[in-house]
Amino acid sequence: MKNNLTPQKLAKMIDQTLLKAYVSDEDFQAFCKESAAYDFKMVAINSAPVKKCREFLKDSDVHVGAAISFPLGQTTIETKVFETETAIREGADEIDYVVNLVELKNRNLDYIRREMESIVEICRKAGVLSKVIFENCYLTQEEKEILCKIALEVKPDFIKTSTGFGTGGATAEDVRLMKSLVGDEIKVKAAGGIRDLDTALTMIEAGAERIGTSAGVKIVEELRERLAAEN
After folding, report:
1. Residue 46: which pLDDT band, with cuts at 50, 70 and 90?
2. Entry's SMART domains (predicted)?
3. CB-based contacts of 175: which residues, under 8 Å, 6+ apart?
4. Which of 87, 174, 188, 223 is the most exposed place for a label (fewest CB within 10 A)?
């Protein structure tokens, strides 16, 4: 296996997601228990259940990640700031926020920069990782490049391809583009439509250092089976 990737190493690259709108506390508890058992890097959830998931994961080192203004990004900077601060106060270790694509389409780049600066600064002061979700399926090549340029100025920890709720998800082409533009200054997270090991490996080979997926268990087990077959 390339890069000596083990199931344990792969699990620590996975943000295991549960972002549905109709999840019970029992579902969250089972999800967190499974995520802890596989030792994923993070659970990706909406901001409301952060506190309860933090409690469910208190005996593990799995991060709790809050999705901010998810999935459309169509809330004000002030609203995103409030949601970010609340999520961190309730136990979030990582923040994934969705860019306001309307203002990007309007070429209101000062707004996009101010939005990114506001959220990244809050995360930085709190010692929390920040991720900026582009939602590439709605963007032109130029718009992707613009967001990467702004990110290079602001320095979030990650830029991310997609929410998984748009018309398209991660592509290797987008991951390569984003990585080529930000280099080692910012990490790239691929998310959306990654449901098997081969797709995950393709994203990693393209430059992704984090994988967002609801199929983390399946992906890790596929790797374990493949390595066993090779030996």
Report:
1. very high
2. DeoC
3. 161, 188, 190, 203, 206, 207, 208
4. 223
Token pair 């959306």 in the structure block, residue: 192
Residues 9 and 229: beta-carbon distance below 8 Å? no
**63 contacts: CB under 8 Å, gap ≥ 6:** 41, 42, 43, 93, 94, 129
Which residues belong to the active site?
96, 160, 189
Q: What is the dihedral of CA 53, 57, 62, 65, to 10 degrees?
A: 10
**What's the rounded Cα separation, in Å, for the pair 10 and 181?**
25
- The contacts of residue 106 (CB under 8 Å, 6+ apart) are none
pLDDT digit string, tens, across residues 177-198: 999 999 999 999 999 999 999 9
Cα separation, 45 vs 48, in Å, equals: 8
Do residues 62 and 39 touch, judged by C-beta distance below 8 A?
A: yes
